[in-house]
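Quarterly update, task 2.4: FE2/S2 (inorganic) cluster-bound model.
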Amino acid sequence: MTIEVCPVEELPAGAMRLVPAGPLTIGVYNCAGKLHAIEDRCSHDDGPLCEGDWEPELCVVVCPRHGSRFDLESGIPMTLPAFEAVPVFPVSVRDGMIVVDVEQH
Ligand code: FES
């Protein structure tokens, strides 16, 4: 399924937006001009990952529940307690609109 997020100018560098995608919620991030999308659910204990702080210059999101840090590009945790990757999704811009291609995992 393809999810329309917003016009590209509405997600400038350093911005994040949460979007519903069927049963999932996905955080879409603009890290210094590169777009990334990650599921809003931590692989450790289902924490609301995208409600945590994030670091645009490093492209890292920090789980608000126990503090694991995840690479936004790969979804791979960089610190414990999480040790499994969080699903990430391809993001592109079509006709000026940011879109995410979501496969159900
Ligand atoms: S729920 Fe995210 S680190 Fe525990």
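Highlight for this quarter: Strands lie at 2-7, 16-21, 24-31, 34-39, 54-55, 60-62, 69-71, 88-89, 91-94, 97-101.
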